[in-house]
């Protein structure tokens, strides 16, 4: 029975969200930093390839099953960019890396852009070992529109500018339980919980 899975991320926001969603499985998510595991390289141009690289790296270094998330913002008017470069988006425009600067850079680049459609995408990949031939892959997508200024104080990343028409609010305006139910990471995590339960925890 799997009791611990390494989370191949040092992002406190991701850890908190995913720990809450994995609690029903009775599995403890251990951030890789607790095990002294450094960041993996992310040389690929798709979320799934980068997430797989991170999961394999963590499993190899930590000798435990591992799960990794690669997520980003895909803006229709920018042909799906910044995509896998989302975390470093602000640095393309002379700002330091960081959520607030990413939001600032995005709003500046979208000045005068009428098509505000965008999607937050989360791809989770889990492996039992570094050589696992059957990685579990879950993808969640939250489609919405980029606002013209930040709204709301909850969440992180692009949450203050990601307006979800079906909810009438940005992610940063929502209570965490509502956000988790509708977010890209929440959708991917629920898929992954089901995949792990089915593939790794059931007995024939």
UniProtKB/TrEMBL annotation:
GO BP, one annotated term: purine nucleoside triphosphate catabolic process
Single GO MF annotation: XTP diphosphatase activity
Chain sites annotated for binding Mg(2+): 41, 70
GO cellular component: cytosol
Signal in keyword set: no
Active site, per annotation: 70
Keywords: Hydrolase, Magnesium, Metal-binding, Nucleotide metabolism, Nucleotide-binding
Residues the entry annotates as binding substrate: 9-14, 71, 156-159, 179, 184-185
EC numbers: 3.6.1.66
Needed cofactors: Mg(2+)
InterPro entries reported for this sequence: dITP/XTP_pyrophosphatase (IPR020922), ITPase-like_fam (IPR029001), RdgB/HAM1 (IPR002637)
Entry's cofactor comment: Binds 1 Mg(2+) ion per subunit.
Pfam families from the UniProt entry: Ham1p_like (PF01725)
Reaction(s) catalysed by this chain's protein: XTP + H2O = XMP + diphosphate + H(+); dITP + H2O = dIMP + diphosphate + H(+); ITP + H2O = IMP + diphosphate + H(+)
Subunit (UniProt): Homodimer.
Function: Pyrophosphatase that catalyzes the hydrolysis of nucleoside triphosphates to their monophosphate derivatives, with a high preference for the non-canonical purine nucleotides XTP (xanthosine triphosphate), dITP (deoxyinosine triphosphate) and ITP. Seems to function as a house-cleaning enzyme that removes non-canonical purine nucleotides from the nucleotide pool, thus preventing their incorporation into DNA/RNA and avoiding chromosomal lesions.
Protein family according to the UniProt entry: Belongs to the HAM1 NTPase family.
Annotated protein name in UniProt: dITP/XTP pyrophosphatase
Upper classification of the organism: Bacteria, Pseudomonadati, Pseudomonadota, Betaproteobacteria, Burkholderiales
């Amino acid at each position: 029975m799997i009791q611990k899975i390494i989370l191949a991320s040092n992002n406190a926001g991701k850890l908190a969200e995913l720990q809450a969603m994995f609690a029903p499985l009775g599995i403890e998510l251990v951030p890789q930093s607790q095990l002294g595991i450094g960041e993996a390289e992310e040389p690929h141009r798709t979320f799934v390839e980068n997430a797989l690289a991170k999961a394999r790296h963590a499993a190899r270094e930590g000798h435990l099953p591992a799960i990794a998330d690669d997520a980003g913002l895909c803006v229709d008017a920018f042909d799906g960019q910044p995509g896998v470069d989302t975390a470093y988006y602000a640095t393309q425009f002379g700002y330091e890396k960081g959520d607030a600067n990413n939001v600032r850079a995005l709003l500046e680049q979208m000045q005068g852009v009428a098509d505000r459609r965008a999607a937050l995408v989360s791809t989770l990949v889990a492996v039992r070992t570094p050589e696992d031939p059957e990685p579990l892959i879950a993808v969640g997508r939250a489609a919405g529109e980029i606002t013209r200024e930040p709204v709301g104080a909850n969440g992180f990343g692009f949450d203050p500018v990601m307006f979800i028409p079906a909810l009438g609010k940005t992610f940063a305006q929502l209570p965490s339980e509502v956000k988790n139910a509708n977010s890209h990471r929440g959708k991917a995590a629920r898929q992954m919980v089901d995949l792990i339960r089915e593939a790794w925890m059931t007995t024939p």
